[in-house]
From TrEMBL:
Chief localisation class: membrane
Protein's membrane topology: Multi-pass membrane protein
Domain of life: Bacteria
InterPro entries for the chain: ABC_BtuC-like (IPR037294), ABC_TroCD (IPR001626)
PANTHER family recorded: ABC-TRANSPORTER METAL-BINDING PROTEIN, METAL TRANSPORT SYSTEM MEMBRANE PROTEIN CT_070-RELATED
Protein family according to the UniProt entry: Belongs to the ABC-3 integral membrane protein family.
TM annotation in the entry: 6-27, 32-51, 57-75, 87-108, 142-161, 173-197, 203-222, 229-248, 254-280
Source organism: Effusibacillus consociatus
Protein name per Swiss-Prot or TrEMBL: Metal ABC transporter permease
Length: 292
């Protein structure tokens, strides 16, 4: 496959996997949790390096995923203690991110381990970071990491679809019928952590956060059914990734930035022209009511 093909495949996998889980975050009013995780994992990456003394991606993934789960746990604990969810997210990720900055400056100042290295990847370099087993090239490492976590998410959500659906719309009713709401919550947060960590090292935190929020928010304006919302969000995410790449090629600009820009444009158009929730449809509905 050509370099362009690998970049498009990686961007599409990131968009689809993030959009799929982002729908549940939007329904739970926790859309910015992905942004929090992408910053809060910094101390986990530093600690993994200090323990292992190498910068292997799998070691970094374990450390980052552990801090991602810790972030979700702390946010949930603060929220249950009476702190508003947005405040809980803000407090948690800024505190953990600051700890990571301190650890880098104290223990890793002479190592190529900085914020630019661990948080902001570049999708254009994906084809050159390949996975090899016994000397056989298997394609970019990012494709395997993101594709693997996407497959895990599909299997877990598919197996517990009813539980995820009820917990997202009405946690109180879910608890009343015997569904382990807290377990489902942490299962979802674990999937978000793994997906975020697997993606942002290669494609950049900006693209990951955008794909966690924008495609799901766009699909939310187009349908009232969760199953349709999940499918639409993935389709919108993949479309934005492909169009964004060609926009970046035309403008000679950032690929991740162009993909995010296309996603924002698609959301803005949907906000205006959505048949059921768009600004125009609501304006026409109000006019008809005034004329009655």
């Amino acid at each position: 496959m050509s370099d362009t093909g690998w970049i498009l495949l990686t961007g599409s996998l990131v968009a689809a996997s993030c959009a799929f889980l982002g729908c549940f975050l939007i329904l739970r009013k926790m859309a910015m949790l992905g942004d929090a995780i992408s910053h809060a994992v910094l101390p986990g990456i530093v600690i993994a390096f200090l323990v292992s003394h190498n910068m292997n991606s799998s070691v970094m993934l374990i450390g980052a995923a552990a801090l991602g789960l810790l972030t979700a746990f702390l946010v949930q604990t603060l929220h249950q203690s009476g702190v508003q969810s947005d405040a809980a997210i803000g407090v948690t990720f800024t505190a953990l991110f600051a700890v990571g900055v301190v650890l880098v400056s104290v223990f890793a100042r002479d190592v190529h381990l900085d914020l630019e290295h661990v948080l902001y990847g570049e999708i254009a370099f994906v084809p050159w970071n390949t996975l090899e087993i016994n000397g056989i090239g298997l394609g970019p490492r990012a494709v395997w990491m993101v594709g693997g976590t996407f497959l895990i998410s599909l299997l877990v959500v598919g197996f517990f679809y009813k539980e995820f659906k009820i917990c997202s719309f009405d946690p109180a009713m879910a608890a009343a019928v015997g569904i382990p709401v807290l377990l489902i919550h942490y299962l979802m947060m674990g999937l978000v952590s793994l997906t975020t960590v697997a993606a942002f090292e290669s494609v950049g935190a900006v693209l990951v956060v955008a794909m966690l929020i924008v495609p799901g928010a766009t699909a939310y304006l187009l349908t009232d059914r969760l199953s349709v919302m999940l499918g639409l969000s993935m389709l919108i995410g993949v479309m934005c990734a492909i169009l964004g790449y060609y926009l970046a090629s035309f403008l000679d600009a950032s690929i991740a930035g162009s993909m995010t820009t296309i996603a924002g444009i698609v959301f803005a158009l949907t906000l205006v022209f959505s048949p059921s929730h768009g600004l125009l449809s609501r304006w026409f509905a109000r006019r008809r009511m005034q004329q009655v």
